[in-house]
Structure formats: C-alpha cells, structure tokens
Design brief:
With about 230 residues, the chain is α+β, with helices and mostly antiparallel strands. It contains 5 helices and 8 strands; from the N terminus they run E-H-E-E-H-E-E-H-E-E-H-E-H. The longest helix has 28 residues.
C-alpha cells in the first residue's frame, strides 16, 4: 500500500491510541489504575443455598463481568499490544527514513534544510516570535492620570497632606506600524514554509503493508489478530 508521511503519521498515532485503550482496559494505565481480574480469571461462584434448608438448591454462577470490553485474556491482549508496538516501530522507522531523505527550501534561512529542521523551526517561530510581534503591533501610546500627595503645614501649623493630579505619559519605544509590518512579513514566510512542508508530507510516497485496521474497534482488532495466530 502507498503511504505518504502524513498518512503514515496518522496510522502511527491511531496505533498508539489503540495500544493505550487496551492498557487502560486492562487497568495498567490511568489515574489510580490497578490491573483488572476480569481478564486474568474465569470467575465461578458456587452459591451453597442448600445449607439454608432443603427448600433451596445449590447454584453455580459463571460471573460475566459487565466492565469487560474484550473477550480475551490479559496475556492475549498483551500479545496484541506487543504486535502493535512492533507495527508502530516499523511505520515510525519508515517515516524517519523518508524524512531524512527530504529537504525543503527554508525561506527564513534562504537555503535547503532537512524536513525535521523545517518542522522544528516553523513551530518555534510561530510559538515564540509571532504572538509577541502581534502583541507589539497592537500597542499604542498611553496617557493616564493618578493622584499623589505632598506633606505640608496648614495655617494652623498642623501637618497635613495635599493631593494633586499627576499626568502620566507612556510613549512607545518603537513604531507599532513597524511591528505590524514585521509580523505580517514573518507570517507570510512561515505560511510559505508550512505549505512547502505540507506538500512534502503529502507527495512523497513509500510502500508499507499495514497489519492492523485502526478504524476497527478494539474487540475486532483483537479478534482479527488472534485469528491469524
């Protein structure tokens, strides 16, 4: 089957989601998680009612846990997790190999760089510079007033405080229009880089045969895997 990097990444993420779901079901991960006996034992209860009187008969009850989502033992489920982890390693390795072979023209550096560097820098510029430039572009000079007071002596010779108005002028140390222009140019550069990255992620293909249908529910995935063994 033909995969591009984007599709392969989605497959890898869905595999991880299924792995996490199985481990949560087993009680191995999650807040206050404890392993569940539902997947470790077949539970049979022998109700010794005959001990009460001859009017009662003993009853054997096979306990079917309401919480159990999958019809398999914990060992079987861990085997499935193992297989899915191996599958994820395989697809991640193919993604890594493909990324290493690709380069992208980096508008900020004016040169070709690896796909990973382009991805890292695009994220870094967007998270560090863009929001701060946007904030600066929206600033303006501010004029406010506040009250202050001085110590004085009134006509009776007593100490007193006199209040007066202070005009506060906060003048920008930079040109907000220049910040806005800087922000716009950087955003355009990063959008071009994002487009180039997306194009590479979608256009470069490699062969990979998936072993799991990640669109099935967990029970179907487990059932299909166990049927192949």
């Amino acid at each position: 089957m033909k995969y591009n990097i984007k599709k392969a990444g989605e497959y890898s993420n869905k595999l991880q989601n299924k792995i996490d779901a199985i481990l949560r079901e087993l009680g191995f991960i999650g807040f206050g998680a404890t392993p569940s006996d539902f997947y470790n034992y077949d539970i049979v209860e022998n109700h010794k009612k005959s001990a009460l009187s001859k009017d009662y008969e003993d009853e054997v009850v096979n306990v079917i846990p309401e919480k159990a989502m999958i019809s398999a033992s914990s060992l079987d489920l861990l085997k499935v997790v193992d297989a899915m982890l191996i599958e994820k390693l395989k697809i991640d390795n193919e993604i890594s190999k493909m990324k290493k072979s690709l380069t992208i023209y980096h508008t900020r550096l004016d040169k070709e760089v690896s796909l990973d560097i382009a991805l890292q820098d695009n994220k870094k510029f967007r998270e560090t510079l863009l929001p701060r430039l946007k904030e600066l572009s929206e600033k303006a000079n501010i004029n406010t007033t506040k009250e202050a007071e001085v110590n004085s002596i009134n006509v009776e010779g007593n100490a007193t405080k006199l209040k007066y108005i202070v005009e506060v002028e906060k003048k920008l140390k930079f040109d907000a229009k220049e910040a806005a222009k800087y922000y716009k140019e950087l955003l355009q550069d990063l959008d071009e880089l994002s487009y180039a990255i997306d194009n590479k992620l979608a256009s470069e293909l490699f062969e990979f045969e998936p072993q799991f249908d990640v669109y099935d529910n967990i029970e179907k995935i487990v059932e299909d895997y166990m049927s192949r063994k």
